[in-house]
Amino acid sequence: MRRSTVRVLSFWAVAAVVVSVGATTPPAAPAPAASPPPPVKTPVAAGYGGAVASVDADASAAGIEVLRRGGNAVDAAVATAAALGVTEPYSAGIGGGGYFVHYDARSRTVRTVDGRETAPLSADRSLFLEDGKPLAFDQAMTSGLSVGTPGTPATWDAVLDAWGTKPLRTLLAPAEKLARDGFTVDATFRSQTAANEARFRDFPATAELFLPGGKLPVVGSRLTNPDLARTYEKLGREGVGELYRGDIARDIVRTVRRPPVDPGATRVVRAGDLTAKDLRTYRTLKQAPTRVTYQGLDVYGMAPSSSGGTTVGEALNILERTDLSPDAATRSRYLHRFIEASRIAFADRGRWVGDPAFEDVPVKGLLSQRFADARECLVRDDAVLVSPLAPGDPREPGGGGGCGPAGTAAPTTYEGENTTHLTTADKWGNVVAYTLTIESTGGSGITVPGRGFLLNNELTDFSFAPANPAVHDPNLPGPGKRPRSSMSPTIVLEDGRPLLALGSPGGATIITTVLQTLTGHLDRGLPLVDAIAAPRASQRNAATTELEPGLWNDRPLRDELEALGHVFKLNPEIGAATGVQRLPDGRWLAAAERERRGGGSAMVVRPATR
Fold this sequence. Notes:
Elements: E1 44-54, H1 57-68, H2 73-87, E2 97-104, E3 109-115, E4 129-130, E5 133-134, H3 137-141, H4 152-163, H5 168-181, E6 183-184, H6 187-201, H7 204-210, E7 222-223, H8 226-238, H9 241-245, H10 247-257, H11 276-280, E8 285-287, E9 290-294, E10 297-301, H12 308-319, H13 331-352, H14 363-366, H15 369-376, E11 419-426, E12 431-437, E13 490-494, E14 497-503, H16 509-522, H17 528-533, E15 537-538, E16 545-547, H18 549-552, H19 555-564, E17 568-570, E18 578-582, E19 588-591, E20 601-607
Parallel strand pairs: 16-17
Antiparallel strand pairs: 1-11, 1-19, 1-20, 2-3, 2-12, 3-8, 4-5, 6-7, 9-10, 10-13, 11-12, 13-14, 14-18, 15-16, 18-19
Helix pairs in contact: 1-2, 1-5, 2-5, 5-8, 6-7, 12-13, 12-15, 12-16, 13-19
C-alpha cells in the first residue's frame, strides 16, 4: 500500500518563536512555531561506524547519535526504542514488551532477553470467558483484562546491565526531548488515530493526548507529549524500578483496576486484576536463542515464549532440501514451497508452543532436521495441503504425523498486527535485533493518566478458549504466564560472524515475513532492501493464503498457483521489516521498507557508497 507522507520533526533541531514588541503598541501574538520539513526517509544506507534501521527517521537518528558518541549496538537499540515510544506510540512504548536478540562480537555468541508481558498472578483459563463463553475480541482488547505486566523498561535495564556502555538517563535524553518538542504527524499516524478515534474518545487521558483540541491530528502538525517527557526524565533519574515499584507502578495498577472511562461513554470497559505484586515480581528472562543451520549459515532466533524462532527454524529446515534459487525454481514453485513450509510449521506451532514455564515445549525436536524431513515429505509439487493441517509429533522417532495418518488439527488463533522492529550494529561488530510491541494498534486504548503512554492489550494473544477442544492448547491463560508470541528477531551468522539481522511487526504474519525475507535474500539472491520490499504472501495453517497487491495483481502467477489448489485473499499490507547486513568490504548496510507504513529509515554513522 502506498502511503503519502513521512514523519518526523528532527529532535536535534530547535524551533524558534520570534515575538516582535513595539515601543508603544500592545505586544503582537506569538507567531506559531514553524515545523521544519520532515527529513526524507531513506530505505537503504551503507557505510562505516555502525547502522540503525527502524520505521522512523527520528528514532533511527537517535540511535545513530548514540553510536557517534561512542555507544554500542545495545545502547543504540535502547535509544531508538525509546524514541519509537514517542513517534510510534500505537506500536510500542514502555507500556508493552518485546524480545531482544544480541550478538556479542567479543565472545562471538548470541544471547536473548525475553521481555514479554505476563498475566496477573490471579489469571486462569477463564480470563476471557463470561458465562462460559469467550468475550468478543474488541471487548477484550479495550479493557483492563487485556493488560499484561509491561516488560519493555525491564528489558532496557537488563540489556544495558549485561552489554550496554551508557547510562539509561543518557539514552532516554533524545526521546525525552522529542516528546517535549514534538514530532510531525504523517498520514500513517493520522490514519491509525482515525481507526482508533471512537475508543480513544472514551478515555479522557488518551483523547487529550492523541486528539488535540478534540480533533484528529492534522498531517504536518506537531504532536507533543510532555507527560511522557516527564516519565522518561523520571525513569532516567531514578531507574526503571519506578515503573515496577514506585509512583508509576501505582498509577498503572490504578488504571488497570479502575479504567478511567469518560462518564458519557457507553462502552463497557472491564477492569483487570493487575496488582502491585504483579509489577514488583516481574522479571525478564535471559536465555539461549534457537538455532538452525540453513545453506551453511547459522540462523538464530527467539525461543519460547515466542514461537518465532521455532517456527521460522522449522520452516527453514523443511525448505533446506529444495533448491529455491532462480536457476532451479520458478517464482510459482518457490512460492508454493514457501507457502507449504509455512503451513506445516504453523500446524506444529499451534500444538506445541507456549510459555515453557507452564508447558512442555519440545524445542529441540521442533528444530531437528529429522523432524523437518518427516514433515517435508507431505509437500507435493502438484497439489496443496488441506488446512487446518494436523500437527506432527517431534517427540516421536520419525516425527509422528509426518507422512502417516493425519491427527486432529487446530486453527491458528488471532494475533494483533501492530508492533515495531529495529535493528542496530556498531563499529565493533555487535548486532541487535529487537522487536517490541503494545499488541494491537493503540494497545488497550487506555493511557495512564499523567504518564503519557498507552497500556498494552498483550493478553489477548492467549487463546480465549481451546481452538479445538480435542487438541491440547498450550496457549491458554495462567497465573504469571507469558502469552505466545510470533515476534521473530533474527540474526544470521556466517563462520561465527554477523551476516545479517532482521525482524518485522505483523502479529502471526511476522513469522512468514521473516521467512520470506530470508529466503528472498539467501535463496533468490535479492539485495536485502529488495527482499524486504518484495510483495509478501502469508500462510498460517488456514484455508486461504494472504497476498499483498504485488502478488494478488500478478494474474499469471496466481493462475499457476491456483491451478495447484491454492486459495488466496488480498491483504493490503503485511509487516514492516528492517535489517542490517555486514558487507564483504566491512561496511554496514541498513535496510528498511520503501513503502509499507510510509517507508522506513535506514542510517549509518559514516556513509560510504563504494
